[in-house]
Structure formats: structure tokens, C-alpha cells
Write a structure and sequence with these properties.
Layout: E1 3-11, H1 14-26, E2 32-34, E3 48-49, E4 59-60, H2 61-74, E5 78-80, E6 84-88, E7 94-98, E8 103-111, E9 115-117, H3 123-127, E10 133-134, H4 137-140, E11 148-152, H5 156-166, E12 171-175, H6 185-193, E13 197-200, E14 203-209, E15 216-221, E16 229-234, E17 237-240, E18 244-246, E19 277-279, H7 291-311
Parallel strand pairs: 1-2, 1-8, 2-5, 8-19, 10-17, 11-12, 11-17, 12-13
Antiparallel strand pairs: 3-4, 6-7, 7-8, 9-18, 14-15, 15-16
Helix pairs in contact: 1-2, 1-7, 5-6
Bound molecules: NADPH dihydro-nicotinamide-adenine-dinucleotide phosphate (NDP).
Length: 313
């Protein structure tokens, strides 16, 4: 079995991982980055990115990730395709194993595996992905100016997305499967006070339709009751906001997570409960979840690694 030694293993790509690779490589740490299931991360499933500073004309998520990746490689980062399937943080150097059977011995680790938006599981969601279906209102909302959109979910994320979209779209429908919103009271009130948001309680999505692009959703009200009613809602955009799942399964044995599975970091730093293991990006951030904040925390993690390695040299 092949084995590799590195001063810093970065697990996961996306803005946090690539930025961490850029900063650690410029600090002569020669990081080794494994890109994971979705090289470039969640941004590669969005269309255009117009809110990342430095791109006055906007760019695509894929191009943005490719740019930061190239920048990191230019300074010596080793970026590899592949998935880390197993870690052992109980021994030093830390141990990780890839899906190709390579064993890595790492003096420090940056976890930047991100979070994945949850989907309803309808085949139509994949069919219209990028053609009307999105899991990120801040990324894609701008394309629905003066159009009709729907947001699915009843938590804080759904309310936040609905409010954000209500300033762009002409009409926003919030599709909630129960007869109440789970979101905090203040968010609920803001949604209910907004004249162009209509909350559809007790409503489930059965499917989506449209010729080339999304044109509407097949909905069911009061499913499984005598009042069950099927109807179609014409919309141009369908936003999923039913939660995110941080990609932390393989770390949970060693790393402290919060009640939603996000990595807990210490204070303002990116340090985890295991000294020498750091976390950056959405995997440790249930709140902001922006490319720029993820990139910022990737930078912080790299600086934390640099200090950690200097202190342990
Ligand atoms: P939540 O888990 O809080 O809410 C998910 C929502 O999606 C619920 O209304 C749930 O319905 C619904 N849902 C789940 N699965 C389905 C499904 N298959 N079909 C239809 N609806 C479904 O996730 P959030 O992302 O909203 O929030 C996660 C955490 O982050 C929370 O603790 C939240 O408070 C926090 N947060 C805080 C923010 C802030 O403070 N500004 C902003 C955003 C998030 P049901 O209620 O029926 O289960």
C-alpha cells in the first residue's frame, strides 16, 4: 500500500480548501489537498457568481474554483483527485486513507469538506438543476428578478431565503409541509408581514414540470386527509431550503460536533478539540455559508496551521 507524508493535509476542495492550500503553499508548507466527491464544492452546482469580490462582470462557480485551484498549485500545493474515506486522529502524525488505498501521515489537518444541501429526492430536481432549481437564493436569486419563485421549507433558512428573494422576485411562495413554521418567531413574523410572500401551509411537492426550463410545481395540499387536493403552481424558480448536512461523518469519532453535526471551532480560531486539526468553510459554519466567508476561514485555517507547525517544530 502506498503511503505519503505531509506537513498539512487539506480534506475537501471548495473556496475554503483551495484558499487554505494557497496560503499554506505560500508559507512553504507544501500542503496536500484531496478534492473529495465534488471537486470545487457546492459552488460548482450554481450558475453565475456575481458576489465574489474582484469579479466586476461576475464569473461562474466552476471558473472561480478553477482560478483559486490554479493559484494554489502555482505556489506548490499538491491537489489530488480522490476521497478521504477514513481518518485516525488518535495518533500522531495523524492518519488518513484515500479511496485509492493510499495512507497519508499528516502533521496537521484542515477539514474543509463543506455541507451538502438536502434535496427532496424527486427525480425532477436533478432534471431542472440550474434550469430553475437551486439550493442557494443568495447565489441564484438575482436571475429571478420580477419572476415568480417558490421556496421549500419552514425553518430559518427557508424564511431567510424567502425574504431575500422577496426583494427581487415579484411573488414568493413558501411551501411548508406542516401547518406551522419551525423558524424563530422573529423570522416567521418578517415572512408573514411581507406582502409578496405567500405561505402555503400543509403543502408537499409531488413533482416539477416545464419544457426546457422549470415552468411550475405539482403540489398536494393536506396530503393523506379527506381534504387532499392536487394543484399546479406556475413558477420560474424552485429553491430548496430544507436544511444542509455538514460532511462530517468520518470525523465524528474524534472531532466535537454541534447538535446539527457542524464542527465546533474554538473561539475566533479554526482550531477543533483535537490539537493540530482545524476546520474551515461550511463544515463549521451553519450561519453565513458564503463563498467569500468560506475562503476567509480557509485563510484563517492556513495561518493557524502555520503557527501550530512552528510551535511543534
Ligand atoms: P431546519 O432543520 O431548522 O428546518 C428545515 C425545514 O425544512 C423544516 O421546516 C422542515 O420541516 C423542512 N423539511 C425538511 N425536510 C423536508 C422535506 N422532505 N419536505 C418538506 N420540508 C422539509 O433547517 P434550517 O436550514 O432552516 O436551519 C438549520 C439550523 O441553522 C437551525 O438551527 C436554524 O435555526 C439555523 N439557522 C439560523 C439562521 C439565523 O440565525 N439567521 C439562518 C439559517 C439557519 P418540518 O418542520 O416539518 O420538519
Amino acid at each position: 500500500m502506498d503511503s505519503i507524508k505531509t506537513k498539512c493535509l487539506i480534506i475537501g476542495s471548495g473556496p475554503a480548501g483551495y484558499t487554505a492550500a494557497l496560503y499554506t503553499s505560500r508559507a512553504n508548507i507544501s500542503p496536500l489537498l484531496y478534492e473529495g466527491h465534488q471537486p470545487g464544492g457546492q459552488l460548482t452546482i450554481t450558475t453565475e457568481v456575481e458576489n465574489f469580490p474582484g469579479y466586476p462582470e461576475g464569473t461562474t462557480g466552476t471558473e472561480l474554483m478553477e482560478d483559486i485551484r490554479k493559484q494554489a498549485i502555482r505556489f506548490g500545493a499538491q491537489v489530488r483527485e480522490g476521497i478521504i474515506t477514513e481518518v485516525d486522529f488518535s495518533q500522531r502524525p495523524f492518519k488518513a486513507v484515500t479511496d485509492g488505498g493510499i495512507t497519508i501521515a499528516a502533521e496537521s489537518v484542515i477539514i474543509s469538506t463543506g455541507a451538502s444541501a438536502k434535496f427532496l429526492g424527486l427525480a425532477d430536481e436533478q432534471k431542472y438543476m440550474g434550469l430553475g432549481v437551486s439550493a442557494c437564493a443568495t447565489c441564484d436569486g438575482f436571475f429571478y428578478r420580477k419572476k415568480r419563485v417558490a421556496v421549500v421549507g419552514g425553518g430559518d433558512t427557508a424564511c431567510e431565503e424567502a425574504l431575500y428573494l422577496s426583494n427581487l422576485a415579484s411573488e414568493v411562495f413558501l411551501i411548508v409541509r406542516k401547518d406551522y413554521l419551525r423558524a424563530s418567531k422573529v423570522m416567521q413574523q418578517r415572512v408573514l408581514d411581507k406582502p409578496n410572500i405567500k405561505v402555503l401551509f400543509n403543502t408537499n411537492t409531488a413533482g416539477l414540470y416545464g419544457e426546457d426550463y422549470l415552468e411550475g410545481a405539482h403540489l398536494i395540499e393536506n396530503i393523506g386527509t379527506p381534504k387532499e387536493q392536487h394543484f399546479d403552481l406556475p413558477i420560474d424558480g424552485f429553491f430548496l431550503a430544507i436544511g444542509h448536512k455538514p460532511n462530517t461523518d468520518i470525523f465524528s469519532k474524534y472531532i466535537e460536533l454541534d447538535e446539527n453535526g457542524y464542527i465546533k471551532t474554538i473561539g475566533q480560531s479554526t482550531a477543533t478539540n483535537v490539537e493540530g486539526v482545524f476546520a474551515a468553510g461550511d463544515v463549521a459554519d451553519p450561519h453565513y455559508r458564503q463563498a467569500i466567508t468560506a475562503a476567509g476561514s480557509g485563510c484563517k485555517a492556513a495561518l493557524d496551521v502555520e503557527r501550530y507547525l512552528a510551535g511543534n517544530a
